[in-house]
Amino acid sequence: MLEIKNLTKKFGDFTAVENVSLKIEKGEFFSIIGPNGSGKTTIIKNILGLLHPTEGQILVNEKSIEEDPKKVKSKIGYIPDEPKIWSHITGEEFLFFSGNLYGIDNKQIEKKIPELLKNFNLKGIEKKYFENYSRGNKQKFTILAALLHDPDLILVDEPIVGLDPQAAESAMELLNNFVSEGGSVFMATHTLPVAQEHSDRVGVLHEGKLVETGTIENLREKMGDPEASLLKIYHHFSQND
Amino acid sequence: MIKKFLSYYLKKIRRYFRENTKSRVSVAILMVAAVFLLAFGIFYLTREGLASTQEGTDPFLAQAVPLYIYQLFFLITGFLIFVSSSIFGLFNFFKGEKNDWIMATPKFEDLSWVNFLRALTDSSWPIFILALPLLLAVQNVFNFTPVYFLLALMSALIFSLFASGSAIVLIFLISLILKVLKIKSFKALALITGLISISIGGLVWSRIVNIDISKVFQVQEAIDPSLLFLKENFSIFPSYFPSMTVFAGQMQNMESAVSNTAIIAAGFIAVLLLFVILKKKFLYIWQSFQEGSFEAKTKKEKVVAPLFSKTAYPKSKEDTIFKKELLVSLRSARNLFWFGFLMILMFAQVGVVNLLERYVGIGASQEVAVAGLTPSLQIGVILFFINALILRFVFPALSQEGSTSWILGSAPIDLERVFNAKFKFYGALLTIIGIIALSIYIIPLTVSFQIAVVSLLILTSGILTSTMLGLSIGTIFLNFKTDDPQRLSTSGPGIGFTLISLAYGGFGAYLLYEIFSGENYLLILLFLAISIIIYKIAKTKALNSLENLEFL
Fold first, then answer.
1. How many domains does chain A fold into?
2. I need a labelling partner for B43 at 20 to 30 A (CA). Which of A15, B230, B531, B552 fits?
3. CB contacts < 8 A (A, B)
4. What H or E segment, with its residue span, contains residue B377?
5. Is residue A227 part of a domain?
């Protein structure tokens, strides 16, 4: 589904991501964890084509984002860490707008919207402007927009920041359902319990380098502590680099 | 507070020059040069105009016309300062972004002072550029002594502070009344402020356009008839006092100069005192405008469809962006206010044409001028204002996507389509405005069908080319670090666009003059060819830069 080959991204002299390689299968929930500035968002932006890799290659469904960006992007759903949307657009208009950008027919969007809104109990506020929404509600609309075009891969940057507990649960349930239906999720997060609970595999990123990947059990084995929490795993691998 | 404020400005200037110092110094030099040129233009034209009124022996011409010019100058600039301060006040006192953290500190009252001082300085500095050369020209023609010059300058500056401060006080007063009436709608505040500004504008307009200047010249016997008549017409506006100070300098009347300066100074002190009283209620008022139409309501209410939401979403991706531009632009109160402000400036020109028509006789007797010069000048003026709109709205159009750029960047859409959609939207909007302005400008001149068609052709191609140029330069020098259109427009590339577009607009107007006066219609082809070249080069360069764009 997603293959990253030797990805390096430099900003001038600064290397944000260095020689990262990983593969995510169809129906897999992969989480990447790492401290602030470790390069998580930069990797997501490279996968999405928002940044150009300095070196390396990214393939989605065996197609390169650099060679066929439109086709690759049409298969990806993106949930950014900051749900910044135009202030004077309503939630409903944003869903139409997103759907149209992905080439979905208006009638189809109209049919899908009520179902999508139910996921987060958003019915009744969809005709209000984004400037009137709380951060959490903005985030909910970006999650729904990412699901609208039935992508194969969802890229999530801190999915539950700003969501209330019930909405956070709904969001993770949506992502889990998406995975169980054959979709793949690449999630960057600091919320370690969420990553531990939902991920099939985890990658630890430290100063732009992917220092370890594997299932939680694999990682525990590697550090020789079968009971280690993800927080402990995170500290272990990010300090021993 | 003033010390802190000055230090804030100094730090701001230092910060500006810290990065890209060479290019920013060049921008600063270019801006100073542009301001100097403008000031020199005002000085030269005013001096020549005033000098010509003093050539004859007619005392009415020598006194009434200069006084009329002073009154018009201060009335119009005062109104523009008032409107500009109103827009600033509306969006910075109660709706300023990132103000929450200041309002959460015990120093929250300082924000009202800082904004008040910012409104005064930001809105009043243009009077320096406009009034100083005007006063120097007046001084040059009438040999003002330094005391009269200083009084006139003081009067002009205090007046600008008065105009700006009264706009802020008005906004505070309306807000307070709304709060007492439990109306927590920012829209209501914006609407009432807008309506008051329009009403004042209407009054200013009626006094300018409907004045019967012939009356001034008909009264032959009275000693100083012009004063009486002009007083009747203009004394209802505060701009009357600085005008009278300047006129007192011309007439060497110290008592009048001092008393008029004192009156406007008293007015400003009154405004200042009112602000000091009203600012005590700053937090009380500020709170109510933070609520907005909050969604967490327990009671079910009827959902009202927002503006333009009924228009169907189009099927093509490009048209989707077009609709987004339409919604985002037309629903933003800040955009609409600025748009309205520039429109006021543009259509104020109609008043001048009307005056020329009625009093100077252009159109009635000088057919050569009508045939060539006047329509050419009008096209130049329209292109000038359209370029101002392009600089404010089109040039920053892509940069303003800023924090929302992920939406377009992550979608399967060519950025070329986004670029084209923005061009279509602004090109169509500005062409419509240009055609309306052209119709209003040239209908009173009763020009021939041929002139009208050629003017339309030149104007339309000029607007579309300038729109493409503005959008392209803004795209080539894309800046996602800020979405503040003022900051983007006054950057080096913004100034560059201004200079190129002014040269292009001026060239268009000149060619039009040549076409009309020499009836050399082949020159239209030259203008069109140049326009197509500019359009093509600008578009190609912009699209090339989009190919390598990164969304940091």
1. 2
2. B230
3. 103
4. helix B373-389
5. yes
**One domain for residues A158 and A219:** yes
CA separation, residue B232 to residues B72, B221, B255, B441 (Å): 14, 18, 21, 29
Range of the domain at B109: 35-288
Model ipTM value:
0.87
Residues of chain B whose beta carbon is less than 8 angstroms from a beta carbon of chain A are 292-296, 300, 303-306, 309, 312-315, 317, 320, 323-324, 327-328, 331-332, 403-404, 406-414, 548, 550-552
CA atoms of B264 and B240, how far apart (whole Å): 9
Residues in A closer than 8 angstroms to B293, CB to CB, are 128, 132
Question: Residue B431 and residue B461: Cα distance in Å, rounded?
Answer: 9
pLDDT in tens, A199-236: 999 999 988 999 889 998 888 888 888 888 888 888 88
* A241: confidence class by pLDDT, cuts 50, 70, 90: very low
Q: Is residue A80 part of a domain?
A: no
By three-state DSSP, how is residue B305 classified?
A: coil
The rounded distance, in Å, linking the Cα atoms of B164 and B162 is 5
pTM of this prediction exceeds 0.80: no
Name the average pLDDT for chain B.
Answer: 81
Look up residue B167 and give its amino acid.
Answer: A
Whether residues A220 and A166 fall in one domain:
yes
pLDDT class of B314 with cuts at 50, 70, 90: low
Which phi and psi angles does A182 have, rounded to 5°? 105, 0
Query: Within this chain, do residues A225 and A166 fall inside the same structural domain, yes or no?
Result: yes
Domain extent, residue A93, equals 85-150
Residues paired with A156 in a beta bridge = A79, A187
Give first-to-last CA distance, chain B, whole Å. Answer: 38
